[in-house]
Amino acid sequence: MTQTAEHESTDETPAGRLWWQSAVVYQIYPRSFADSDGDGIGDLGGIIDRLDYLADLGIDVVWLSPIYKSPQDDNGYDISDYQDIDATFGTLEQFDTLLAAMHARGMRLVMDLVVNHTSDEHPWFVESRSSKDNPKRDWYWWRGPCEGMDAGDPGAEPTNWGSAFSGSAWELDEATGEYFLHLFSKKQPDLNWENPEVREAVYTMMRWWLDRGVDGFRMDVINFISKDPALADGPVLEGRRYGFGGFINGPRIHEFLHEMHEQVFVGRDGQFLTVGEMPGVTVEHAQLFTDQARGEVDMVFQFEHVGLDHGPGGKWDPRPLSLPALKGSMARWQAGLAKSGWNSLYWDNHDQPRAVSRFGDDGEYRIASAKLLATILHLHRGTPYVYQGDEFGMTNFPFASIGDFRDIESINHYNEAVATGDDPAGVIANMLPMSRDNARTPVQWDAGPNAGFTTGTPWIAVNPNLTEINAVADLSHDDSVLTHFRKVIALRHDEPVVVWGDFTMLLPEHEQLYAFTRSLERSNEAAGRSEGGSDGSHSSGQVTLLVIGNFSSDDVSLADVPDVDAWTTSDLVLGNYPDPDATQAATLRPWEARAYRRAGAWHLTMGRR
User: Is a pLDDT exceeding 80 seen at residue 603?
Assistant: First the structure.
């Protein structure tokens, strides 16, 4: 986030550029990361125990999913006290220990900020629902039944809006006869950001965490906070039961985010990161949200590329992924934020299925495709995010019945679909590739009981492939997925073209190859700092990377890649197979990825990383 203090220029972050642009972020979903007390749920002690692992991986920033006091209806995204730690995870004293230990290792900590909604057990909502004339009544969205209907009648909800977790987005409070809005669980009532008292309470809480030493916030569904006060019915999309309301990028969203920036960050010493999760955001919106001159957020999480395999019925109606469509989406975002703004780069997180199962091949080519996905993603322009366990290729879980699931979204969908007549086996089949629980099974640290996650009974089952896929196994091999992640992260840290270079997509319609270049014009000074000769001489010129990946289980010719013969004799700086010989150079093997480097004004010899 832009602050009043000038950004310090270093060799890695030249003047005018920001530290988080060259950073790599690692997301921790605490309840599934590491359990230190044997209760089967991950906690702060478990994170503290694994910090050296993260430092060795090369991580710069840790994004910590919610650890605040919560009834845990949505695994912590339903917050009942923003300024305390849930006993499930530990204490504020443990949090302070964790934060200090991260800073001592050169890592920063970003907290998950969930302020579109609270828990229904938060004192604010307890007061709000107590009576129609309570001073906090309008801290939330309350409405009476539809005109001409009685509260509680079928269809009497104020609007046709649907909840992201199935059913109506309105819940009747029988004591007052009015409905409250909840875009997610009925235990997650939406805050009314039109009320300035709500906004100031949120800003006060944010300042409290910054005073404690945190380095920024990942903001949950932050583009939902501005609702059109009319709360009108929305269109019902094909295959959907409920309407789509006016709550995405609402009329005051830019005003609210700029006000947050002014009230929380301006005038504060430090270098911070703000990331806005924004379902439904477009490139054009993101250009505004992430323009540093506007003072809103530093980057956004957009959902375009992770919606390409959704059918008309949404995520529970999965379709095969088209590689040209994926490349088209990624290229559009690269181009749209090339001059102003910044991209966040991710394949998955706690709300998405495992990357290698969704975009790769989690069977025969799991290792190769996990490495390919890391290579392709991290060498785009933007800040990459690693979700826990991806660094050694964790996969989706083989759920067999509804009893295996723990996620409220998945369970609610199943219950609603079966209640309306859908075949239970078919519902489960469609849930398998997309359920959020795929990402929430415990991190597989070793091949021992419960994968080393806990000495107790884990809150959700460990993937049965733990003996094959675990961190200890990868740490023991020089050619593992984890070792490859280290190389990719090191390349981003060491090679300026990966961070700052221009992006050009190649072969956009190719069904198997994902290919692009990154190019950076180096000044005499910049070139000399990292590539000057032993005599101290400096050179200038363009540095270019060619990144190519084969998203298939077949050998694929590189004949369509422009200038391929020259490229395949250039410096191979990264690959996920043994270096190709002369007969292999013009072909990519199944799920093979390579990054070649060449410098324009001088020849550069770089060893394989």
Answer: no
